[in-house]
Amino acid sequence: EPEVTQTPSHQVTQMGQEVILRCVPISNHLYFYWYRQILGQKVEFLVSFYNNEISEKSEIFDDQFSVERPDGSNFTLKIRSTKLEDSAMYFCASSLALKETQYFGPGTRLLVL
Amino acid sequence: SQQGEEDPQALSIQEGENATMNCSYKTSINNLQWYRQNSGRGLVHLILIRSNEREKHSGRLRVTLDTSKKSSSLLITASRAADTASYFCATDRYNQGGKLIFGQGTELSVKP
């Protein structure tokens, strides 16, 4: 069964460093998303992406964040200058269409020191 | 406003018993999705129920949706120790471009 994959599974970085989180969505899906979950808190929406552009973003998704689909398979989230409060589990998701099931990847646990 | 509030926050039952978790929301939705998360792991999709549906089944899972009360319930029948996890509802709000709004979740513990 097709699934969303994410790399790395864990990332430790120093405050102020740039990180790139990678995702490979399900191959025929058209809509892509990033969410995050701070330890012990709700899963929060960050951004949605369709047709090579951002469809919607949350207040969390400020200028330090960017997303890209550099080729036909990868979908990346970049944090330019990480802060301590960026420490969280980051989930990528994809769906075939709007209003359809969103399938989540296993997550990348980011720790900013 | 809070969207997707689950109750109870925690539920502990014996293997073989049924577990019922509830979710309430505040705005109109396209659909409501239930997910499971094992401790510190990824989100596994369980069921999607659309706003025009009232009940759906998948194996031992039964989901109901009452749009007049803006609430949903997830019933797991004949629970197993392997069902121990956190369960989240997530709403796809009407005219909101597909983003999911998650609740805090219900932590289910099934004791063997």
Description:
The complex is a heterodimer of chains A (about 110) and B (about 110). In chain A, about 0% of the residues lie in helices and about 50% in strands. Chain A has about 110 residues and is mainly β. In chain B, the strands form two sheets. In chain B, strands 2, 4, 5, 9, 10 and 11 form a six-stranded mixed sheet that branches. In chain B, strands 1-3-8-7-6 form a five-stranded antiparallel sheet, with no helix packed on it. In chain B, strand 9 (about 85-95) and strand 10 form a beta hairpin. Helix content of chain B is about 0%, strand content about 60%. Chain B is globular. Chains A and B meet through strand 4, strand 5, strand 9 and strand 10 of A and strand 4, strand 5, strand 9 and strand 10 of B.
Q: Tell me what portion of residues of chain B adopts beta-strand conformation.
A: over 45%
Q: So how many helices of chain A?
A: 0
Average pLDDT score of chain A: 95
Span between N and C termini of chain B?
38 Å
Structural class of chain A: mainly beta
Give the proportion of residues in helices of chain A.
Answer: under 10%
Radius of gyration from the alpha-carbon trace of chain A, in angstroms: 13 Å
User: Based on DSSP secondary structure assignment, what is the total number of beta strands of chain A?
Assistant: 11
Structural class label of chain B? mainly beta
Please describe the biggest sheet of chain B, giving its number of strands, its sense, and whether it closes into a barrel.
Answer: 6 strands, mixed
* Low-confidence spans of chain A: none
Q: Please provide the ordered H/E string of secondary-structure elements of chain B.
A: EEEEEEEEEEE
Average pLDDT of chain B, rounded to a whole number, is 91
Distance between the termini of chain A: 37 Å
Taking pLDDT < 50 over at least 5 consecutive residues as the criterion, the unreliable ranges of chain B are none
What's the total count of β strands of chain B?
Answer: 11
Q: Determine the most extensive contact between two protein chains.
A: A-B, 27 and 25 residues
- The helix content of chain B is under 10%
**Coarse shape of chain A:** globular
Number of helices of chain B: 0
Shape call of chain B: globular
